[in-house]
Specification:
six-stranded mixed sheet
């Protein structure tokens, strides 16, 4: 069994990514609905495709995107950690979806069919992203200064600094339309194409894409119900993303930011938006500054953090784990790797609460469940995390499309399966539109209250090895 320490994994010149980052702003088309594919013959059930001779493949139905489908199909055949590919008849799927791609009326439909083929595996981080289209104004890196999430069965503005000539977009408002296009259509489309667990994240992503702009200074016309349920129109500008830009392979110009401050009762607050190795020093510096200010407990906010480069999880875990440990095991096709966290002196040993939501994914999930299995953190949130924890790589194919594909399975130190299930909070919080309208953050409030009960009054940092493993979920 191989072990990972703090180096970035690479295979064929590609950085191993444990995360939902793609380096492109345009969302992949929703998978197309497909008729069930006939099961494999009994003698071929759970066939090992690793030795399949691709030279004997039948020619595909001709079409503009047939070579792209074939390239995607072959890459999964070669690289997926499971040589049986979930007991699917991978050759038959190639033929079925090649016919659909050939019949597609548009490139977008063809991409949707290819993603539907990938969707047959039922796993995260298997997606084809379209070729970049820089001339399209509707998609891009800029966006209004607001965050929309699915709360109480509505698209609710949970944070906002967006303001236009008609006034601000208040937190607690519900979003009804973007540029005179009702968002209900987006909601229904996403509801049909995603399972219930994934729906809150997918609908927020779809709306965020609609809110994006190709460049700063462009505007969107928003129709909202404000916090008092008064219908209102706001024309708001798109702003360039803030934060230091980091590039690694096909993860290009990713804006990164680290935030820290001291809360009441000497509880520190630390948040960062993605996992990229150059951020480790900034996270470490923020934690050291909080400790110098007398931090007794820590809130680590990983809400909305979609993951990134998996190797960053180890040095960050080292800052919080006062003994040697493991974040779990990655199982590739030909070998396994332990995510070993070696011991260093001076790790923070006070209680830690980690905040999660439906956007907490991948490297974030591996980091959290690994530390929770060792009793080091308490998880606080209104929803389970995304359940998208499989390591992947991102590769640019001929023609410019980006393919993200799975290369390993993951198990936590206690064997917990995160993929498809997510991390259930130990402390469950109810989020309401009313709370956001009042400027409150119910999840942060609950975490702060939980930590205040765990730290003796007057102490600076508890002694010992930190919290004991949780017996029950709170």
């Amino acid at each position: 069994m191989r072990m990972i320490t703090a180096t970035t994994l690479r295979r064929g010149g590609l950085a191993l990514v444990i995360g939902g980052l793609t380096g492109c702003s345009e969302p992949a088309p929703a998978p197309a609905k497909a008729a069930p594919v006939e099961p494999a013959a009994p003698e071929e059930e759970c066939r090992d495709w690793s030795s399949f001779d691709v030279d004997g493949l039948a020619p595909l139905v001709e079409g503009a995107e047939a070579p792209l489908l074939d390239a995607v199909w072959r890459r999964v055949l070669e690289k997926h950690y499971d040589p049986t590919l979930g007991c699917l008849h991978w050759v038959k799927l190639r033929e079925v979806y090649a016919r659909k791609v050939a019949e597609a009326a548009t490139p977008e439909q063809a991409f949707g069919h290819i993603n539907a083929m990938l969707g047959e595996l039922g796993q995260s981080h298997l997606r084809l992203f379209p070729r970049r289209a820089p001339d399209r104004d509707s998609l891009g890196p800029a966006a209004p200064a607001l965050t929309v999430r699915w709360v109480e069965d509505q698209l609710v503005v949970v944070h906002s600094a967006a303001e236009g000539p008609q006034g601000p977009v208040p937190a607690g408002a519900t979003l009804l339309a973007i540029d005179d296009q009702a968002v209900q259509g987006v909601v229904e489309r996403v509801r049909v194409s995603s399972d219930p667990h994934a729906f809150p994240l997918e609908v927020a992503r779809a709306v965020t894409a609609r809110l994006s702009c190709q460049r700063a200074g462009q505007v969107h016309k928003l129709k909202i119900n404000d916090a008092e349920d008064h219908l209102a129109i706001r024309v708001v500008p798109c702003l360039a993303p803030q934060g230091e830009r980091v590039t690694l392979g096909n993860l290009r110009d990713i804006p990164t930011h680290v935030e820290h401050r001291m809360l009441e009762g000497q509880v520190g607050y630390l948040a960062f938006n993605v996992w990229m190795l150059p951020m480790v020093k900034r996270v470490q510096a923020a934690l050291e500054e909080l400790r110098e200010q007398g931090m007794r407990a820590l809130v680590l906010d990983l809400r909305g953090n979609p993951g990134g480069v998996g190797a960053m999880a180890i040095p960050v875990a080292r800052l919080l784990l006062p003994r040697e440990g493991s974040l779990g095991t990655l199982r590739f096709r030909d070998f396994e790797q332990q995510l070993v966290v070696d011991h260093v002196e001076g790790a923070f040993i006070g209680p830690v609460a980690v905040l999660v939501d439906e956007g907490t994914a991948s490297t974030s999930e591996i980091f959290i469940v690994g530390l929770r299995d060792q009793g080091r953190v308490t998880v606080v949130g209104a929803r389970s995390s995304a359940g998208a924890a499989l390591p992947s790589v991102i590769e640019e194919l001929e023609g410019g499309a980006l393919l993200q594909y799975v290369v390993a399975d993951y198990r936590s130190p206690k064997g917990t399966v995160v993929e498809g299930q997510g991390i259930v909070p130990d402390v469950h919080v109810v989020e309401t539109r009313e709370a956001f309208a009042a400027g409150r953050d119910p999840v942060l409030e609950a975490a702060h209250e939980h930590l205040a009960k765990m730290v003796p009054a007057g102490s600076i940092e508890p002694s010992g090895d930190g919290p004991k493993p949780l017996e029950t979920a709170g």
